[in-house]
Amino acid sequence: MLLSHLPAPATPRPPAPGGTVLDWFSHWARVRPHAPAVLTPEACWDYAAVDGLSSELAARLREHLAPGDVVGVLLPRSVTLVVTALALAKVGATYLPLGENPPKERRESIVETAAARHLLASADHPDVGGDPVVRHAVAGTKVALTGTGRTAGMAGAAGPAPYAIATSGSTGRPKVVLGSQESLTTLISWLATRLAITEEDRVAMTASPGFDAHLLDLWLALGTGAALVVPPEEALSSAEGLLEWCADQRIDSMFLPTPLGELVMGATRPAHLALRRLLVGGDRLRAVPAGDFPAEVLNVYGPTEAGVLTTTHVVGAHEDPLAIPIGVPLSGRTVTVTDEAGEVVPRGTLGELRVTGAGVALGYAGGHFGGFVPAAEGEERTYRTGDRVLMRPEGVLEFHGRLDDQFKIDGVRLEPAEIEAALLSFPGVTSAAAFPFTTGGGIRQVGAALTTSPGATRSEQALLAHAAARLPGPAVPRAALFLDDLPTNDNGKIDRAALAELLRNRLGGEEEDRSPATVLLRMVRDLVGQDLGLEDSLADAGVNSLTTARLLSRMREEFGLRVRAVDVIRAETVADILPALR
Questions:
Q1: DSSP H/E element including 258
Q2: Could you say which residues form the signal peptide (predicted)?
Q3: Which residue from 139, 293, 353, 418 has the highest number of Cβ atoms inside 10 Å of its Cβ?
Q4: What is the pTM of this model?
């Protein structure tokens, strides 16, 4: 009997000498100083220039940072962000990318959890207050380091926590994952070999800072001597526009979130497109590339806690789009499927996915374990993902959902407890529950239910505004119920399904027309903010590839997995989509 266990493959030879991704970058800066390192719509910086800029910034930062300090970075995709990441690596600090403008209270919660007493942002960023301890110009952008005091050093220079990434937290606060050097080196070594990245390649910087895939973009290019190409924001608003940009910039490799990746696979392609590899991840993949799609498509899976990526699967043109697996493990990641007692189950049996090995992150900032299994000295780290999977007889993993209350909205993983903590901080709220629900218009959203103390003001508008200031966009509830008590099921747990039904009924869902045509039309109207008819032009209403990606995700939540990306892409009107629902 074959058990559901696959050891990690051997780590390939690193793409350059040295034991860290920074060592690899430094190697390429020495041997190929004039090769392009970062290209933006405005300019091109070679390896020597980027190395010099990052060394200058590192010298300034060393005056106020110690090795192991955590630094939150509030910068968009740019050469300034790249230089900052390199400078922090040279200092030995922990790089915590936050995106350019996260909700202020969430950002403050992340910074507190990570014990990051320093923020680095553009000098004119609204959250740069007080008297910055460092002001420095990087490639024409003035950046400022703010903060007082230092965090306790977690490691020496190039220490074991080169990066930290915030994720949704089951405790009601964001969790901060501390990554290891081995997480990065095993990931980049494996991908560089598997994708055959060379110094002549161009890698797109498409992942948003603040998400772990940003590290993949950054180091897959700079660790292999390739060029990192930053797209203009407008290129990311359309699948066709993104492919035109890829063709014009001669992009070889690109990562995309799953909904946008599906649209790119089905979009009209320019004749001069040179894309050779497309990685898609973040949600269930439900589309396959056309037979003439030029790039190899890899469906990638991995929690942040398990080293950005855990498994990959090459997607074939003739696969069943409703049964695309998540694949086999990367270097540094042994995968095992276990039952509730932690025993390995036979292949073909559903269970929880556990990941073990050097690729697993160090743990959470603050020391709480969560899904990390305490390891004795000399043992490898293990992370319990909470994902329900099945290992096929040939050793390929299938994803079958979650084992807990986590849910996704528009591809973003959400913890109810984090949303509930934001709701509980509203004056007068005594208990709260967050849950997904489908509106009468067929839109999957976050809902909230609350109880309050006697005499407390029950203002739904004020409550939702309060939540919006503390949560990322997809996690903000759309509507709320004020109740005397929260309903429970037979196990004594909050009955979130009952709450979803209550909220849908309150919003009129029970009385509304639930025919496929009406539900679909409401979805489109909600996305474009216009009162469209079935035969009105989607293009004239401003529907672009990002809108289509959101529509596709919502249609699948409502109508099931049979909805294909190509059916939505080719539609000129809402009526054109209806045959796909029959």
A1: helix 258-266
A2: none
A3: 353
A4: 0.80
